[in-house]
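User: Run a structure prediction on this.
Assistant: Running it now.
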Amino acid sequence: MKKRGKLRLIKKQFSLQMFVWIGIAYILLFSFVPMFGILMAFKDYDIVMGVKGIFTSEWVGLKYFKEFVSDYNFANLVKNTAGISVLKLIFTFPVPIIFAIMLSEMRSLKFKKLVQTCSYLPHFISWVIISGISFQFLSSSGIINTLLLKVGLIEKPIGFLTDASKYWGFAVASDVWKEMGWWTIVFLAAIVGVNQDLYEAAQIDGAGRLQRIWHITLPCIKPTVVVVLIMALGNLFGGGLSGSNFEQSYLMGNSMNQSASEIIATYVFKVGLAQGRYAYATAVGLIQSVISLILIFSSNFFSKKIAGTGLF
Protein backbone atom coordinates (compact mmCIF):
# COMPACT_ATOMS: atom_id res chain seq x y z
CA MET A 1 0.00 0.00 0.00
CA LYS A 2 2.83 2.38 0.86
CA LYS A 3 4.56 1.68 -2.47
CA ARG A 4 1.32 2.33 -4.36
CA GLY A 5 0.90 5.58 -2.45
CA LYS A 6 4.43 6.68 -3.35
CA LEU A 7 3.90 5.75 -7.01
CA ARG A 8 0.68 7.75 -7.11
CA LEU A 9 2.45 10.72 -5.53
CA ILE A 10 5.30 10.51 -8.05
CA LYS A 11 2.80 10.24 -10.91
CA LYS A 12 0.91 13.24 -9.57
CA GLN A 13 4.11 15.28 -9.27
CA PHE A 14 5.65 13.97 -12.49
CA SER A 15 6.31 17.39 -14.02
CA LEU A 16 7.96 18.64 -10.83
CA GLN A 17 9.94 15.42 -10.50
CA MET A 18 11.30 15.91 -14.03
CA PHE A 19 12.71 19.30 -13.07
CA VAL A 20 14.46 17.74 -10.06
CA TRP A 21 15.93 14.82 -12.01
CA ILE A 22 17.13 17.07 -14.81
CA GLY A 23 18.90 19.22 -12.21
CA ILE A 24 20.46 16.14 -10.58
CA ALA A 25 21.58 14.82 -13.99
CA TYR A 26 23.15 18.19 -14.80
CA ILE A 27 25.11 18.22 -11.52
CA LEU A 28 26.29 14.63 -11.98
CA LEU A 29 27.33 15.19 -15.59
CA PHE A 30 29.10 18.53 -15.25
CA SER A 31 30.23 18.53 -11.59
CA PHE A 32 30.90 14.97 -10.45
CA VAL A 33 31.97 13.12 -13.62
CA PRO A 34 34.73 15.67 -14.48
CA MET A 35 36.20 15.14 -11.00
CA PHE A 36 37.87 11.97 -12.32
CA GLY A 37 40.23 14.38 -14.09
CA ILE A 38 41.73 15.21 -10.68
CA LEU A 39 43.80 12.03 -11.12
CA MET A 40 45.96 13.97 -13.60
CA ALA A 41 47.40 15.95 -10.68
CA PHE A 42 49.01 12.78 -9.32
CA LYS A 43 50.10 11.22 -12.63
CA ASP A 44 52.73 11.89 -15.27
CA TYR A 45 50.13 12.64 -17.93
CA ASP A 46 51.28 14.36 -21.13
CA ILE A 47 48.58 15.04 -23.71
CA VAL A 48 51.13 15.99 -26.39
CA MET A 49 53.86 13.37 -26.16
CA GLY A 50 52.21 10.67 -24.11
CA VAL A 51 50.24 7.81 -25.60
CA LYS A 52 48.86 6.63 -22.27
CA GLY A 53 45.58 7.86 -20.87
CA ILE A 54 44.83 9.39 -17.50
CA PHE A 55 44.23 6.05 -15.79
CA THR A 56 47.26 4.28 -17.30
CA SER A 57 49.85 7.05 -16.88
CA GLU A 58 52.64 6.67 -14.33
CA TRP A 59 51.80 7.68 -10.74
CA VAL A 60 54.05 10.51 -9.51
CA GLY A 61 52.30 11.43 -6.25
CA LEU A 62 52.89 14.99 -5.03
CA LYS A 63 55.54 15.85 -7.63
CA TYR A 64 53.59 18.70 -9.26
CA PHE A 65 52.36 20.08 -5.94
CA LYS A 66 55.97 20.40 -4.73
CA GLU A 67 56.97 21.95 -8.05
CA PHE A 68 54.34 24.66 -7.74
CA VAL A 69 55.18 25.48 -4.12
CA SER A 70 58.88 25.75 -4.98
CA ASP A 71 58.22 27.85 -8.10
CA TYR A 72 59.86 31.29 -7.98
CA ASN A 73 56.52 32.93 -8.82
CA PHE A 74 54.57 31.08 -6.09
CA ALA A 75 54.73 33.83 -3.43
CA ASN A 76 53.69 36.55 -5.87
CA LEU A 77 50.77 34.48 -7.22
CA VAL A 78 49.44 33.79 -3.73
CA LYS A 79 49.92 37.43 -2.73
CA ASN A 80 48.02 38.73 -5.75
CA THR A 81 45.25 36.12 -5.51
CA ALA A 82 44.67 36.60 -1.79
CA GLY A 83 45.25 40.38 -1.81
CA ILE A 84 42.79 41.18 -4.58
CA SER A 85 40.17 38.80 -3.19
CA VAL A 86 40.45 40.11 0.38
CA LEU A 87 40.17 43.72 -0.79
CA LYS A 88 37.14 42.80 -2.90
CA LEU A 89 35.55 41.08 0.10
CA ILE A 90 36.15 44.12 2.33
CA PHE A 91 34.60 46.54 -0.14
CA THR A 92 32.10 44.51 -2.19
CA PHE A 93 30.46 42.71 0.75
CA PRO A 94 29.19 45.65 2.88
CA VAL A 95 28.37 47.93 -0.07
CA PRO A 96 25.36 45.88 -1.35
CA ILE A 97 23.97 45.65 2.20
CA ILE A 98 24.21 49.41 2.71
CA PHE A 99 22.80 50.07 -0.75
CA ALA A 100 19.90 47.66 -0.18
CA ILE A 101 19.02 49.42 3.08
CA MET A 102 19.16 52.80 1.32
CA LEU A 103 16.83 51.55 -1.42
CA SER A 104 14.39 50.10 1.12
CA GLU A 105 14.19 53.49 2.84
CA MET A 106 13.33 55.40 -0.35
CA ARG A 107 9.85 56.90 -0.43
CA SER A 108 9.48 57.21 -4.22
CA LEU A 109 8.76 53.78 -5.71
CA LYS A 110 9.50 54.89 -9.29
CA PHE A 111 12.86 56.38 -8.39
CA LYS A 112 13.67 53.29 -6.33
CA LYS A 113 13.01 50.99 -9.31
CA LEU A 114 15.04 53.24 -11.61
CA VAL A 115 18.06 53.26 -9.30
CA GLN A 116 17.83 49.51 -8.71
CA THR A 117 17.64 48.76 -12.44
CA CYS A 118 20.60 51.01 -13.25
CA SER A 119 22.66 49.46 -10.45
CA TYR A 120 22.32 45.81 -11.50
CA LEU A 121 22.61 46.31 -15.29
CA PRO A 122 26.47 46.28 -15.19
CA HIS A 123 26.30 42.68 -13.91
CA PHE A 124 25.18 41.58 -17.38
CA ILE A 125 28.07 43.33 -19.13
CA SER A 126 30.94 40.93 -19.82
CA TRP A 127 34.49 41.69 -18.72
CA VAL A 128 35.46 41.74 -22.40
CA ILE A 129 33.28 44.81 -22.97
CA ILE A 130 34.36 46.37 -19.67
CA SER A 131 38.02 45.95 -20.60
CA GLY A 132 37.34 47.68 -23.91
CA ILE A 133 35.52 50.54 -22.18
CA SER A 134 38.34 50.82 -19.63
CA PHE A 135 40.91 51.11 -22.41
CA GLN A 136 38.93 53.89 -24.10
CA PHE A 137 38.65 55.86 -20.85
CA LEU A 138 41.84 55.03 -18.92
CA SER A 139 44.58 54.38 -21.46
CA SER A 140 47.39 56.92 -21.98
CA SER A 141 45.48 58.41 -24.91
CA GLY A 142 42.07 57.79 -23.34
CA ILE A 143 39.34 60.27 -22.49
CA ILE A 144 40.29 60.84 -18.84
CA ASN A 145 44.02 61.39 -19.45
CA THR A 146 43.25 63.66 -22.42
CA LEU A 147 40.91 65.82 -20.32
CA LEU A 148 43.34 66.01 -17.40
CA LEU A 149 46.17 67.04 -19.74
CA LYS A 150 44.07 69.73 -21.43
CA VAL A 151 42.91 71.13 -18.09
CA GLY A 152 46.50 71.17 -16.88
CA LEU A 153 46.01 68.99 -13.80
CA ILE A 154 48.75 66.55 -14.93
CA GLU A 155 51.91 66.93 -16.97
CA LYS A 156 52.03 63.38 -18.34
CA PRO A 157 49.41 60.61 -18.73
CA ILE A 158 48.62 58.49 -15.69
CA GLY A 159 49.19 54.77 -16.21
CA PHE A 160 45.86 53.52 -14.89
CA LEU A 161 46.16 50.27 -16.86
CA THR A 162 49.94 49.90 -16.97
CA ASP A 163 51.06 50.87 -13.47
CA ALA A 164 51.22 47.75 -11.28
CA SER A 165 50.72 49.83 -8.11
CA LYS A 166 47.30 50.97 -9.38
CA TYR A 167 45.96 47.62 -10.59
CA TRP A 168 44.54 46.35 -7.28
CA GLY A 169 42.58 49.56 -6.71
CA PHE A 170 41.29 49.52 -10.26
CA ALA A 171 40.30 45.83 -10.00
CA VAL A 172 38.36 46.40 -6.77
CA ALA A 173 36.63 49.58 -8.00
CA SER A 174 35.51 48.01 -11.29
CA ASP A 175 34.28 44.90 -9.49
CA VAL A 176 32.23 46.95 -7.01
CA TRP A 177 30.66 48.87 -9.90
CA LYS A 178 29.85 45.66 -11.79
CA GLU A 179 28.50 43.42 -9.00
CA MET A 180 27.09 45.79 -6.37
CA GLY A 181 23.59 46.00 -7.85
CA TRP A 182 23.29 42.24 -8.41
CA TRP A 183 23.94 41.33 -4.77
CA THR A 184 21.75 44.22 -3.67
CA ILE A 185 18.79 42.25 -5.06
CA VAL A 186 19.51 39.40 -2.62
CA PHE A 187 19.69 41.63 0.44
CA LEU A 188 16.74 43.73 -0.70
CA ALA A 189 14.62 40.57 -0.97
CA ALA A 190 15.59 39.70 2.60
CA ILE A 191 14.61 43.19 3.79
CA VAL A 192 11.25 42.95 2.03
CA GLY A 193 10.57 39.75 3.97
CA VAL A 194 10.92 41.50 7.35
CA ASN A 195 7.65 41.75 9.25
CA GLN A 196 6.38 45.33 8.85
CA ASP A 197 4.63 45.16 12.22
CA LEU A 198 8.05 45.34 13.87
CA TYR A 199 8.75 48.69 12.21
CA GLU A 200 5.34 50.05 13.16
CA ALA A 201 5.73 48.97 16.78
CA ALA A 202 9.22 50.50 16.96
CA GLN A 203 7.98 53.74 15.41
CA ILE A 204 5.17 53.96 17.99
CA ASP A 205 7.78 53.49 20.72
CA GLY A 206 9.68 56.48 19.35
CA ALA A 207 12.50 54.71 17.51
CA GLY A 208 14.12 56.75 14.77
CA ARG A 209 15.01 55.53 11.28
CA LEU A 210 18.59 54.61 12.16
CA GLN A 211 17.44 52.83 15.32
CA ARG A 212 14.92 50.78 13.31
CA ILE A 213 17.62 49.84 10.82
CA TRP A 214 20.07 48.84 13.56
CA HIS A 215 17.67 46.94 15.82
CA ILE A 216 15.22 45.47 13.28
CA THR A 217 16.53 45.40 9.69
CA LEU A 218 20.07 44.18 10.33
CA PRO A 219 19.14 41.45 12.88
CA CYS A 220 16.34 40.16 10.62
CA ILE A 221 18.56 39.85 7.54
CA LYS A 222 21.45 38.33 9.51
CA PRO A 223 20.85 34.76 8.20
CA THR A 224 21.06 36.00 4.60
CA VAL A 225 24.16 38.05 5.37
CA VAL A 226 25.83 35.04 6.98
CA VAL A 227 25.05 32.71 4.05
CA VAL A 228 26.40 35.22 1.51
CA LEU A 229 29.50 35.80 3.66
CA ILE A 230 30.22 32.07 3.88
CA MET A 231 29.84 31.76 0.10
CA ALA A 232 32.17 34.72 -0.40
CA LEU A 233 34.78 33.33 1.99
CA GLY A 234 34.57 29.91 0.37
CA ASN A 235 35.29 31.50 -2.99
CA LEU A 236 37.89 33.88 -1.56
CA PHE A 237 40.73 32.55 -3.71
CA GLY A 238 38.42 32.50 -6.71
CA GLY A 239 37.08 36.04 -6.49
CA GLY A 240 34.59 36.34 -3.62
CA LEU A 241 31.17 37.70 -4.50
CA SER A 242 32.15 38.43 -8.11
CA GLY A 243 32.50 34.70 -8.79
CA SER A 244 35.87 34.71 -10.54
CA ASN A 245 38.89 36.97 -10.83
CA PHE A 246 40.09 35.16 -13.93
CA GLU A 247 38.33 37.17 -16.66
CA GLN A 248 39.24 40.48 -15.07
CA SER A 249 42.90 39.60 -14.48
CA TYR A 250 43.35 37.91 -17.85
CA LEU A 251 41.77 40.71 -19.90
CA MET A 252 43.12 43.70 -17.97
CA GLY A 253 46.49 42.24 -17.09
CA ASN A 254 49.46 43.01 -19.34
CA SER A 255 53.24 42.82 -19.31
CA MET A 256 53.44 46.19 -17.53
CA ASN A 257 51.20 45.32 -14.55
CA GLN A 258 51.80 41.56 -14.53
CA SER A 259 53.50 41.66 -11.13
CA ALA A 260 50.17 42.76 -9.62
CA SER A 261 47.60 41.27 -11.99
CA GLU A 262 48.72 37.65 -12.44
CA ILE A 263 46.82 35.30 -10.13
CA ILE A 264 46.64 31.54 -9.69
CA ALA A 265 43.71 31.19 -12.13
CA THR A 266 45.53 32.98 -14.98
CA TYR A 267 48.71 31.05 -14.18
CA VAL A 268 46.82 27.75 -14.46
CA PHE A 269 45.33 28.85 -17.79
CA LYS A 270 48.69 29.86 -19.25
CA VAL A 271 50.54 26.78 -18.00
CA GLY A 272 47.74 24.34 -18.79
CA LEU A 273 46.73 25.49 -22.28
CA ALA A 274 49.69 27.46 -23.59
CA GLN A 275 52.33 24.93 -22.47
CA GLY A 276 50.14 21.83 -22.52
CA ARG A 277 51.06 20.86 -18.94
CA TYR A 278 47.62 19.62 -17.94
CA ALA A 279 48.82 17.49 -15.02
CA TYR A 280 50.70 20.41 -13.45
CA ALA A 281 47.81 22.83 -14.04
CA THR A 282 45.39 20.32 -12.48
CA ALA A 283 47.58 20.08 -9.37
CA VAL A 284 47.66 23.87 -8.99
CA GLY A 285 43.90 24.12 -9.46
CA LEU A 286 43.35 21.34 -6.93
CA ILE A 287 45.37 23.24 -4.32
CA GLN A 288 43.10 26.26 -4.81
CA SER A 289 39.96 24.08 -4.58
CA VAL A 290 41.12 22.43 -1.35
CA ILE A 291 41.83 25.84 0.20
CA SER A 292 38.34 27.01 -0.82
CA LEU A 293 36.76 23.90 0.74
CA ILE A 294 38.64 24.51 4.01
CA LEU A 295 37.52 28.15 4.01
CA ILE A 296 33.86 27.15 3.55
CA PHE A 297 33.85 24.70 6.47
CA SER A 298 35.90 27.04 8.68
CA SER A 299 33.70 30.06 8.03
CA ASN A 300 30.55 27.98 8.58
CA PHE A 301 31.95 26.62 11.89
CA PHE A 302 32.89 30.06 13.25
CA SER A 303 29.62 31.53 12.00
CA LYS A 304 27.66 28.99 14.05
CA LYS A 305 29.81 29.70 17.10
CA ILE A 306 29.63 33.49 16.85
CA ALA A 307 26.37 34.34 15.07
CA GLY A 308 24.41 31.16 15.86
CA THR A 309 23.59 30.49 12.22
CA GLY A 310 25.37 28.94 9.25
CA LEU A 311 25.07 27.54 5.75
CA PHE A 312 24.67 23.90 6.88
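Residues 41 and 283 are 4 Å apart (CA to CA).
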